[in-house]
C-alpha cells in the first residue's frame, strides 16, 4: 500500500476557495480512481489555511495513474492560484499491521 501525506497551504484571502477545490479533488478522486483506498483532508486548528490530505493507494501504479488523470491535473492547476507556498508531499510504502 502507498500512503501520501500532502501538506498544502492556502493564501488567507482564498482559504474558502482552496477548501472547496480540495473537496472537489477529493470527490473526483474517490469517484474515478479505483486504486484509491482512502482520501481525506483536514484543516489545521492552529494555522488557518493549512491543510493535510492523507491518501491511501493500492500500489504505486494506482497513484501514478491518479497523478496523470485529467481530474487531478485540472484540479491541482485550479488550486495553484490560491496556494500560499509549494506543497510538501511525502509518500510512504506501508503495510497494515495488527495491534
Overall description:
This protein has one domain: 2-Layer Sandwich (Alpha-Beta Plaits), CATH 3.30.70. The chain is 38% helix and 36% strand. It has helices at residues 15-32, 60-68, 70-80; strands at residues 2-10, 36-43, 50-57, 83-93. The protein has a four-stranded antiparallel sheet, covered by helices on one side. Helix 1 (15-32) packs antiparallel against helix 3. The longest helix is centred in the N-terminal third of the chain and has 18 residues, at 15-32. It is globular and about 40 Å long. The two termini are 18 Å apart. InterPro entries: ABM_dom (IPR007138), AI-2_Isomerase_LsrG (IPR050744), Dimeric_a/b-barrel (IPR011008). Pfam families: ABM (PF03992).
Key attributes of the depicted protein:
36% strand, 38% helix, Alpha-Beta Plaits, 3 helices, 4 strands, 99 residues, four-stranded antiparallel sheet, alpha+beta
* CATH T-level topology: Alpha-Beta Plaits
> Can you give the helix content as a percent range?
25-40%
- Shape field: globular
Backbone CA Rg: 14 Å
CATH class: Alpha Beta
> What composes the largest sheet?
4 strands, antiparallel
Amino acid at each position: 500500500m502507498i500512503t501520501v501525506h500532502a501538506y498544502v497551504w492556502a493564501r488567507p484571502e482564498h482559504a474558502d476557495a482552496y477548501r472547496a477545490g480540495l473537496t472537489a479533488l477529493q470527490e473526483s478522486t474517490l469517484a474515478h480512481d479505483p486504486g484509491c483506498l482512502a482520501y481525506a483532508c483536514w484543516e489545521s486548528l492552529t494555522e488557518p489555511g493549512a491543510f493535510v490530505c492523507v491518501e491511501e493507494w493500492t500500489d504505486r501504479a494506482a497513484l501514478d495513474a491518479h497523478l496523470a488523470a485529467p481530474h487531478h491535473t485540472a484540479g491541482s492547476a485550479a488550486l495553484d492560484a490560491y496556494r500560499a507556498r509549494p506543497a510538501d508531499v511525502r509518500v510512504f510504502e506501508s503495510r497494515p499491521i495488527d495491534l
